[in-house]
Design a protein that fits this description.
The complex is a heterodimer of chains A (about 400) and B (about 400). Chain A is mostly helical and about 400 residues long. Chain A has two domains: about 110 residues, no CATH class; about 170 residues, MetI-like fold, CATH 1.10.3720.10. Chain A contains 19 helices and no strands. Chain B folds into three domains: about 80 residues, no CATH class; about 200 residues, Periplasmic binding protein-like II (D-Maltodextrin-Binding Protein, domain 2, 3-Layer(aba) Sandwich); about 100 residues, Periplasmic binding protein-like II (D-Maltodextrin-Binding Protein, domain 2, 3-Layer(aba) Sandwich). The termini of chain B are far apart. Helix content of chain B is about 40%, strand content about 15%. Chain B contains 17 helices and 14 strands. Classes of the chains: A mainly alpha (about 400), B alpha/beta (about 400). Chains A and B meet through helix 11, helix 12 and helix 18 of A and helix 1, helix 3, helix 5, strand 2 and strand 5 of B.
């Protein structure tokens, strides 16, 4: 390694006064900026912290933790939600073991978070819940170990991918129940964070393939296909999401007799999926357009038919390019699930529950606490999502091209 | 080819958009039709956005579509024929009552987020005056106050939910108005709560009459007719004021509490409930003036008198029980009463209940399981609750109130 002749820059001794003089007070202008910024931070931060720790009455959140998490899901069946979480955490652990770079700090952060929640000293919830939390942390670590051990095996990796695909139907079945093995829990009882996740994840899973098909369809040489795709995309992109939900949740029973018996959650998911698919389609189309013509010609030269060209050459490259824009679409969808509160349908997801619990007579008007708590929950998972997406991007070598 | 495709796409898009667009909160083209319909519907509303009622939307959709050029009509047809009347009309001889009895459970539309009327409790149950009246009806039908499924409904969807049959009955702080009784295709039961719009001000301002509010800024929630009532009344009295409109109920009272406005207006029951949540509850007074009448009543789909009768007389039973002095605690001592009115009422003799298709002791069951009006009121709004709401007009006619049940005979 003869190239390594450069020496590292000399380590500067860490001197706080020196550092501050260099970075914060290097000139008159910078000094003023620093003072103003500190004053601003203090004037915002001090009241916020004071409110968070001394004035806020978190009783409304503590008393309603179960509602916020799972809504009216029957208490004696909540183990099914826990089991679903356990399975998901196990899968996350295995994935951390197999694709360590992609999952990144999400794995350890969740282990830490779950453990802290399991052992925290305040009596917000009972021993059973603590045990479940601890179990989730444990399976995450167990899965991690398993993933590291068998990660190099290609068959194992494929198995993990398939397990992720099967996880959603399995969890949905577990949550809903199947007679006579598990009592069916009507989706009316689902709520809180659970419902937010069900809406968001199901929509993400369904809207992706539909979006890809529409994107490919829009570029199709067949006029019928491309016309249909174009109309579909432009219609759904041109209409506000809340309108789409309105149509599906409220107007549908008026237009289609008999549809009032359809599950509200399914109607909402269909609305979200149709809407998101249009955006995904446009993102993917952007990706498709960035693939140079030479790729098509090369695929043709090797003798691939148009279908295989698309499936093996074009899409893998295009989809990789559009990861950032798709993920931001999914993150905004995850937050947009809160729109069912406005659109109606009697569904109480995280935001709906947060608004309603501030109307319990004993907690009347404590809406800021409830909304702050909901906001933190939204942030944790939205951030996890975009963090993993960023790692995935790096892992797929987007920046190295 | 290209041109045909593009223009075809544009036309179809335009059609679908206009049909869908009518459901959006504020497309200018249809807002007039919507505004007119909404203007006729006072809504004592809790935290809701300002979207018009579904019936109004359906009407607007119909009007918008009718106003479009004809050639592409087939595409717009599904939107052009919502025909809520048809869904609202039961087939001859059948009643919602049979459906509910066959199901073994009442599906009751509630607000779900209005303290004292219907709100979700930490254990997932519903409590409040409206919620208890759902239990009253369920008890009349099945002698089981728990045979009820609560469906939280927004202000916009509540009537559609009744018309489409998603819920059997609406106990959702709904004001009984002429237009709702007619063009929205509802039938109303007896009023279970007489409310009215009031105004709250800071005591230090020394205001006692509406006229003294001249030039004031008044916080008001949009999406309800509270704002319209306010404008009407103040214009009639020739008082100048600046409305400060909020979409959210919590935002409205926060703005008032942080002195962004001099007064806040809403239903009096809500003002009293919300006053307890302000920073200094004692520093505020509610003026004596009442700006509007808001009788809150149960609503069902129209033209189903068997079902309407069951709802109405279940409610009357709670009024009558209080008039007789019967409560859930002492009802068993009245079974042996000598008073023939009480014996008929409780089903000890006679067949009053059978006329409705109910058990003859349905009134006994209601009182035993849920209670009289007084008990229900006290439990949810009375002195032991944070609201401590005086009975006022919601008292028996014998006590100077408006509650009056026709005789059970």
């Amino acid at each position: 390694m003869a190239i390594e002749t450069q020496t590292a820059p000399p380590k500067v001794r860490l001197d706080p006064v020196r550092w501050m003089r260099d970075n914060l007070f290097s000139s008159w202008a910078n000094s003023i900026l620093t003072v103003v910024a500190v004053a601003l931070l203090y004037s915002i931060g001090q009241p916020t912290l004071r409110w968070l720790f001394t004035q806020a009455d978190w009783g409304v959140v503590i008393a309603n933790l179960k509602l916020l998490m799972v809504g009216q899901y029957p208490l004696d069946q909540v183990w099914r939600v826990w089991l679903s979480l356990l399975l998901t955490m196990a899968m996350l652990g295995v994935s951390k073991g197999v694709w360590s770079q992609v999952v990144g700090l999400v794995g350890p952060a969740y282990v830490l978070g779950l453990t802290l929640l399991a052992v925290q000293p305040f009596p917000f919830y009972g021993l059973t819940n603590r045990l479940w939390l601890a179990a989730c942390a444990a399976v995450l670590i167990g899965g991690w170990w398993l993933g590291r051990r068998y990660g190099p095996s290609l068959a194992f990796r494929n198995g993990v991918s398939w397990a992720w695909v099967l996880l959603l139907p399995l969890v949905l079945l577990l949550l809903r129940g199947i007679e006579p093995l598990l009592p069916v829990i009507p989706t009316r009882a689902w709520g809180g964070l659970l419902l937010t996740f069900v809406l968001a994840i199901t929509t993400i899973v369904f809207s992706f393939p539909i979006g890809v098909l529409l994107a490919v369809g829009r570029r199709s040489p067949l006029p019928a296909v491309s016309l249909f795709s174009t109309i579909y995309i432009e219609v759904f992109r041109g209409v506000p999401l809340v309108t789409v939900l309105f149509m599906f949740l409220i107007m549908l029973p008026l237009f289609v007799p008999g549809s009032e018996s359809t599950d509200n959650i399914i109607r909402a998911i269909v609305g979200f999926t149709l809407f998101t698919a249009a955006y995904i389609a446009e993102n993917v189309r952007g990706g498709l357009q960035s693939i140079p013509k030479g790729q098509y010609e090369a695929a043709k030269a090797v003798g691939l038919n148009p279908f295989l060209t698309m499936a093996l050459v074009i899409l893998p490259q295009a989809l990789r390019i559009v990861i950032p824009s798709n993920v931001s679409q999914y993150v905004s969808l995850y937050k947009d699930t809160a729109l069912v509160v406005v659109a109606g349908g009697g569904m109480l997801e995280l935001l709906g529950i947060s608004r309603n619990i501030a109307n319990q007579p004993e907690f009347l008007g404590k809406f800021i606490e409830a909304l702050v708590f909901a906001g933190v929950l939204y942030w944790i998972f939205a951030f996890s999502m975009s963090y993993i997406a960023r790692r995935l991007e790096a892992e797929l070598g987007m920046s190295k091209r | 080819m290209q041109k045909v495709c593009v223009s075809g796409a544009l036309i179809i898009m335009l059609l679908v958009l206009s049909a869908c667009g009518a459901a959006a909160p504020d497309p200018a083209a249809i807002s007039q039709a919507v505004r007119e319909t909404v203007a006729a519907m006072p809504a004592p509303e809790a935290p809701q956005i300002s979207v018009p009622d579904p019936a109004a939307i359906a009407q607007a959709v119909r009007e918008t579509v009718a106003a479009m050029p004809a050639p592409e009509a087939p595409t717009a047809e599904p939107a052009a024929t919502p025909a809520p009347t048809q869904t609202a009309q039961p087939a001859p001889g059948s009643s919602r009552l049979d459906t509910v009895l066959a199901r073994g459970k009442l599906i009751c539309g509630v607000n779900g987020g209005l303290a004292g009327f219907s709100n979700l409790e930490a254990d997932g149950s519903y409590s409040g005056l409206d919620a208890d009246y759902c239990r009253v009806v369920a008890t009349a039908l099945f002698n089981d106050p728990d045979a009820v499924e609560f469906v939280p409904l927004s202000a916009q969807e509540r009537f559609t939910a009744v018309q489409a049959g998603t819920v059997d009955v609406l106990f959702r702080n709904t004001t009984w108005t002429a237009s709702r009784d007619t063009s929205v295709f509802m039938d109303f039961g007896p009023t279970i709560f007489y409310d009215g719009q009031g105004i709250m001000v800071r005591e230090e301002l020394g205001i006692a009459e509406l006229e003294e509010l001249d030039g004031a800024t008044i916080c008001v929630q949009s999406g309800t007719t509270t704002e319209l009532n306010l404008t009407d009344q103040f214009r009639a009295l020739n008082i100048a004021f600046t409305p400060l409109v909020f979409e959210d109920i919590d935002a409205t009272y926060t703005a008032y509490d942080t002195e962004q406005c001099d007064a806040v207006t809403s239903d009096r029951s809500q003002l009293i409930a919300r006053r307890t949540t302000l920073a200094e509850p004692d520093a505020h007074i509610i003026l004596d003036a009442v700006l509007s009448k808001e009788p809150l009543a149960p609503a069902v789909a129209q033209n189903d008198s068997r079902w309407t009768d069951v709802i109405a007389w279940s409610v009357f039973a709670t009024f009558q029980a209080e008039e007789f002095g019967i409560t859930s605690a002492n009802v068993d001592t009245f079974v042996n009463s000598e008073n023939p009115d009480i014996r008929r009422f409780l089903g000890v003799e006679g067949e009053v209940g059978a006329g409705f298709g109910l058990e003859k002791d349905f009134a006994y069951n209601i009182i035993k399981n849920v209670g009289s009006y007084g008990e229900i009121y006290d439990r949810n709004l009375g002195p032991d609750t944070p609201f401590d709401l005086a009975r006022g007009p919601n008292d028996l006619w014998t006590n100077g109130g408006l509650l009056y049940a026709p005789p059970f005979r």
